[in-house]
Structure prediction request, 645 residues.
Amino acid sequence: MPLVTTPNLSAPDDFYEALIDAHKDLPGEESHALNARLILLLANHIGAVDVLREALQAARLGR
Amino acid sequence: MATAPLGYGSSGQAIQAFEFDYRHSPDQSAAAPVRHAVVVVGGGPVGLSLAIDLAQRGQRVLLLDNDSKLSTGSRAICFAKRTLEIWDRLGVGDAMCAKGVGWNVGRVFFGGEQLYRFDLLPESGHERPAFINLQQYYAEAFLAVRAAELPNLEIRWNNHVVAVDQDSDGVRLGIDTPEGRYTITADHVAACDGARSRLRALLGQESKGRTFRDRFLIADVRMQAGSPAPSTSPSGEAASAEAGFPAERWFWFDPPFHPNQSVLLHRQPDGVWRIDFQLGWDADPEEEKKPEKIKPRVDAMLRQALGREIPFELEWASVYTFACLRMDRFRHGRVLFAGDSAHGVSPFGARGANSGVQDAENLAWKLDAVLRGAAGDSLLDSYAQEREYAADENILNSTRATDFITPKSEISRLFRDAVLQLSKHHPFARTLVNSGRLSVPAVLHGSPLNTPDADRFEGRMVPGAAAADAPVRRAGQGGWLLRHLGRGFTLLLAAGEGSAALAVQLSDTQLPVPLDVLAIAAPGAPDSAAALVDADGLVTQRYDLQPGNAVLLRPDHHVCARWRRPDVAAIRRAVDRALATH
Prediction:
């Protein structure tokens, strides 16, 4: 299955708010660590390495 | 020297002190350079394994070593299953396993806390464990003892190759000895002369790759026998009473007693523990090797691990750096490079000595076939091709482990630490923790010696894979599949329609090399002397070997072809292909 880039979030605004809230009051360094843990958790959830490679490429290109 | 000869029971101390005698060879006073079929240069685990293998195949072998001693210090200490299986074929596997120690429990620590423990739980149905820990000097000593049993294998100690040149007719080797220089010629030369290979330099070649700017201290420490063990380790488990420390592998990332670096502890025979301390690039190797510098490091580790200090003796210490590199080509005309001379890896994952022994076994049967005229010279090209491929795989694995253990950038460190943090509670993250992956043999996918599958098969025994072991029974005797494989090619032939007739046809067929047909009977079949009974059904399962099917194994026990409905013509073509003569 290719990387889903069409709208797929069940509640986009809720997710975005939760993402920002998760970083609340964290110093920059700890925010970065949180992001790293988050990426690892999500990557495991996705599982398929070809989908992850597509995501990495899209993120690297910024588009 | 008037010392006792080396034996399978020699002590580690005796082995390291042992000096082989230099002996004058008639070659040195010959009027013209004496010709040898095959010369192996270097008497380490790789050179010795290769020389023994060739000699067992009936070749006259000359092995030259530039000094008169075996390895000093423990050096390579993890010998993997595949290496042990090769050494079984060479007659030394039992000695290695009797002396070596195994472990199953590992612990991973991050900072001051234990993240998790794991049990290797090796797959059952194999004679040999995933690996053993054994000091390199024991491995070399057992090989040297075995070599001395073979009358067609000559070892010349204190024979240092200092000149090499070759043409289409052969190789000339100039050799320095305590009595001066002499020259011999050879059909083929195997350069097993280590990371700083003289032969490589003499041929103007180099090994290229990535050098890591880091230093590690190895301390081999003998815990004093009888030192009272603590009742429990901090993890709540009983420690080994005789030596004060559990026989486990402990790996620390960033421990409080050695901040920002890694530390590895594991056990060797004779109550010796190997401790690796990462030191960083700026450490002074000479300074760090001093016992007074090492003792406080070990004491601090023991205080953290056991809650107190215990007496120990320092057996050996060394500071090392490493690189992941290889030669562009492992074959240069009649000179073939094997082991550390051809490629180097970081020590994480035990892929140095293990891959070298696999080089040796890949090369041995090919050189033998070429020297016998059963195969053309191009079979030796396949040695280089297959083992360059394997070296790339080993380098990839070892580079990945190194990058995890010693992150090279801030972001790499960030992700590494995130993996470690998550691994305490989330099993998935433990699959990402990489303190060295188990050394397993490369599957030689895409080797020109493989016959591609024409039929559908399941499982891991694809063409190119090293043969998996399985329990078998013959005439009521339990045993192991790998022990029954021949020195030439072996056809595993499952009893079924037409299999008996095929076996008869094959026995009447002239092939360029010997082919042993090993009839495999289904689990539950009556015992007989004619067939191996697949005792637990694991041959069937691991090879997907259904009634009437066949799997062809090369002399180095790699799968090279398999068929649902084998016939003589197809088997002949596959053998020719595996000899590069098709």
